[in-house]
Amino acid sequence: MDNSNVLLVTANVGTLFEDPLNLMQQWIHEFVLTIKQLQPQFIALHMQEVGGKTYEQSSNHVKEFIESLCGAYEMQEFTIARIYLDENFNSQDQFTALGNIYFAHKTIQNIRLWNFTSSSWESTQGKLSYYGNIEDVPTKEKSKFPREFFPECKWSRKGFMRTRWDINGTIVDFVNIHLFHDASNLTALADFPSVYSQRRRKALIHTLKRS
Predict the structure, then answer these.
(1) Rounded distance, CA 111 to CA 133, Å?
(2) What is the pLDDT of residues 13-32, one digit of tens each?
(3) pTM beyond cutoff 0.85
(4) Which of 50, 138, 164, 203 has most Cβ atoms within 10 angstroms of its Cβ?
């Protein structure tokens, strides 16, 4: 990617919205401090469990989180931003609670974003945010994992969301993927590899084959 500095961050942020008064601003402070220290030109921030376990009760905190993050002094020279937040919590078939945020610094000369619907590149200017039901947003691909992938047949919000960027002539897919945890240590010990490891592998291969 020529000499562009890229910062990749992935974080399960569910607890931030369960205790926003104590955790949210502290998290943002550490994030922008990292930006100040590393001075990246492109940032990909991938978040899982945005809004916590009760999204419908935390939506105001999510908005506050995004506004505080984007409004930080250290972020003002990032003149291009794309924000994708899956907030469609009423749709069990589609909701993933994933959030993808991208920032591009004004020093990046050439940057484009892939349109998955038209299979073509789009120029990127300014800052755009996509909230709520984002199923029809063409510059991202998002999907829950098929029901049969889930251990113990308990269908949850696990899935992935990806974007594709052309940054100064280098094409990169950024994939935010939320895989399965070990729901039971006893079940995990029963076989090797465990049923959870097998399911994670299956979901990862499923995601890679979508590329």
Answers:
(1) 26
(2) 988 988 888 899 999 999 99
(3) yes
(4) 50
